[in-house]
Amino acid sequence: MMEEMTTLVTPQMEASKGVWHSFERSFPIAASDIRRWAIAAYWGAMPPRLFWDDDYARTTRWGGIVAPEDFNPFAWQLPRDLTEEELRLQGAIPGEETRQGDNILNGGQADIFGARMRPGDVISSRSRLTHWEEREGRNGLTLYTFNETEWTNQNHELVKSRVLTLIHY
Amino acid sequence: MTAFFEDIAVGDEIPAFVRKTTFMEWNRFAAVNEEFVYVHMDDEAGRAAGQPGAFGMGNLRWAYILNALRDWMGDEGEIRELTMQFRAINQKDDILTTSARVVEKSDDTDGAALVHLAIDVVNQDGKGTSPGRALVAVPSRTRASARSGQ
């Protein structure tokens, strides 16, 4: 019989609380990255010209194409070996036994948007685990982790600050 | 279209952004966001996670709310903050409808005209899946405009 877990909090979490990590730098944002993002997000209709028509975008307050606020410049970074913790954050894997805590849902997010992202921008990112809460839920022992991420551009302007809530059960 | 501060009233509902979410919508979004997570791609993984099958990405609902805000404000507006809780799962073939209601108008210290909205994404059963709030800066005919483009 599987032993009942009493906590999903790991020593690694305790050690990393509040410590900035995952320092990353994006490839330069391409206009085609922005256009494709907008097409996907608006699929079923034409995306706004601000995201793909530079002639139009230059007539707006933005002075050129900008990215949607939710554009992710860190999609399609070069692959690398993932740590065990990063693999677990991928969630349940078909055909493999799921351990308690391996199921992960996005519980929500809170963003503050700053400077718009533009073609040519290079975005730097850093993250930290700020705190967590653990309680019994409908799926048993459930852990809520709160993770802060900051993005800045090459001019050291804040692009976005996000607090992400992940639900582990 | 541009939404001007003076034309906006507390209680206004902004036009909805509506999409039926099939694998076509999910896969296109996953491809640009590199969001290849088994539970969003594979029914077996979705069932292992306690759901009827593969389920949708919260980030796509997030995108739909941003789309609705932009379509309403126009390109001179600016989305400053967005908060959303993912309270219910987006199942395949759900018809999602954004909801956003003006709850407050205010000024920022830099003179920007701010509009606060209560937001949600509602499914075809009328169930709210993603409550939250948004803060946007919109142009004003009578006061200093939102901060200049950056």
Oligomeric assembly: heterodimer
Structural class of the secondary structure composition of chain A? alpha+beta
Number of helices of chain A: 4
How many extended strands of chain A? 5
Mean pLDDT of chain B: 93
CA(first)-CA(last) distance of chain A: 19 Å
Radius of gyration of chain B: 17 Å
* Low-pLDDT regions of chain B: 146-150
Largest sheet of chain B: 5 strands, antiparallel
Strand content of chain B: 25-35%
Overall mean pLDDT of chain A stands at 91
Largest interface: A-B, 44 and 47 residues
Mind describing the biggest β-sheet of chain A? 5 strands, antiparallel
Q: What does this entry look like structurally?
A:
The complex is a heterodimer of chains A (169) and B (150). By secondary structure, chain A is an alpha+beta fold. Helices cover 15% and strands 31% of the residues of chain A. With 150 residues, chain B is α+β, with helices and mostly antiparallel strands. The longest helix of chain B has 16 residues, at 58-73. The relative contact order of chain B is 0.23. Mean pLDDT of chain B is 93; it is low at 146-150. At the A-B interface, helix 2 and strand 2 of A face helix 1, helix 3, helix 4 and strand 2 of B.
